[in-house]
Amino acid sequence: MLVTVYPAKLKGVQMAPASKSSMQRACAAALLHVGETVIHNPGHSNDDLAALDVIQKLGAEVVMNTNAITIHSKGVMPVGPEMNCGESGLGIRMFTPIAALSAQSIKIQGKGSLVKRPMHFFDEILPQLKVSIQSQAGYLPIQIQGPLKPSTILVDGSLSSQFLTGLLMAYAASGAQEVSIHVKDLKSKPYIDLTLHVLNHFGWKVVHQNYEQFQFQPHAPLPEHIEYTVEGDWSGAAFLLVAGATSGPILVTGLQMDSTQADKQVMEALRKSNASINISPEGILIGPAKDHKDLQSFEFDATDCPDLFPPLVALAASCQGVTLIKGVSRLAHKESNRGLTLQTEFAKMGVKIDLEEDVMKVYGGAEIQSSTVFSQHDHRIAMACAVATLNSNGPVQIIDAEAINKSYTNFFEHLHHLGVQVHIE
């Protein structure tokens, strides 16, 4: 899909999309919950649909309604020999330990960029939990056979917190007690907070000591019927908020200010850039810099929220001065190597980016150029380029723009709703 986005000044109100981080965890918890779960405000991104497909392959019954999804489950009971997580990194890392709760042999597949993302973690950890595993030298497809037997283990949390999310869910559902998961160098702690929030909502009790040791406590029997509401997605909304800061003002609704989502930290970067922000019960009213001054460069540590790099680069491109963003090392194993991809594609729009060890330098203030860019099959790159275009000197064509379907299917529709001319071929 080729999408052309035109420069624009935005106005209006837009509700944030549903959080796929929250949605996918809710799907996993609903599978593990023996009974009925109703998920309100469900997401419909490709990753969300992949999660729904996986839980059905693992035995859940799913009934789709207009604004809710009802899931009936008897636990992990695979109905076939394999499952496919699509292109979801969270999906593959979360559902693999969950699938291992079954004694049935199952092949775990993925597609697109996921087949190139390392899964060596499972080769090292699952055998310690009595799960047999065969991978392609640490890559997909993976063949596993349980049942998983929880024991006290030490895991490396430096690559991704998503592996730990899967283990926490599998351990909790197995009734693990008197065992613990020890973690060293955990990154993206807010995502683990979200996992614990979902587990606690369903009735499992998991506590931690400084994110270095996780323990599983006795809990009351889970209720037969559980309802869960998916919150607004700070990851997708970050692009709306940056668009408002650079080309608004707009009102973004549907976000929880007390959310445990890591990407809520975008608000800190926006404040540092001198964007105009007014938070009320109606939502977040966000516009260009206060007192009609220019947006200013900023420093920001994105180590625990690496998905913010693309929207922050789009923000920095419209700021005066050099913005410094820490955490580049977290970008290598995303849908693309995002550090290099951002550098390459924003250069086409006249924005210089330097990568110096763990720091990205974005040189703002220059006129953003009309050009043709390539998403490199990465949803966040496509959205970042679209948002940067709003302050460009002409239209920008985005090749492979359908990549947005991974997380934010209605992104271009929402931009159009806010006043942006968008041409789709």
What's the name of the CATH homologous superfamily of the largest domain?
Enolpyruvate transferase domain
The third-level CATH topology of the largest domain is: UDP-n-acetylglucosamine1-carboxyvinyl-transferase, Chain
In terms of DSSP E residues, the strand content is 25-35%
| CATH secondary-structure class of the largest domain | Alpha Beta
Spatial sequence of strands, sheet with the most strands? 22-23-1-24
Give the total of beta strands.
24
Please state the average pLDDT score.
95
**Poorly predicted regions:** none
Question: In the CATH hierarchy, what is the architecture of the largest domain at level 2?
Answer: Alpha-beta prism
Structural class: alpha/beta
Helix content percent band: 25-40%
State the major sheet. Answer: 4 strands, mixed
Rg from Cα: 21 Å
| Straight-line N-to-C gap | 6 Å
Helix tally equals 12
Gross geometry: globular
Please give a structural write-up:
The chain is an alpha/beta fold. The chain has 2 domains: 2-15 and 232-424, UDP-n-acetylglucosamine1-carboxyvinyl-transferase, Chain, CATH 3.65.10.10; 20-215 and 225-229, Alpha-beta prism (UDP-n-acetylglucosamine1-carboxyvinyl-transferase, Chain). It has 12 helices and 24 strands. It has helices spanning 20-32, 46-57, 89-99, 120-125, 162-174, 189-202, 234-247, 266-272, 309-317, 338-348, 379-389, 411-417, and strands at residues 2-5, 13-15, 35-40, 61-64, 68-73, 82-84, 106-109, 132-134, 142-145, 153-156, 180-184, 205-209, 213-217, 225-229, 250-253, 275-280, 283-289, 299-301, 321-326, 352-356, 359-364, 371-374, 396-399, 422-424. The strands form 6 sheets. It has a 4-stranded mixed beta sheet with strand order 22-23-1-24. Strands 2-15-17-16 form a 4-stranded mixed beta sheet. Helix 1 runs parallel beside helix 2. The chain is globular and about 60 Å long. The termini are close together. 54% of the residues are buried.
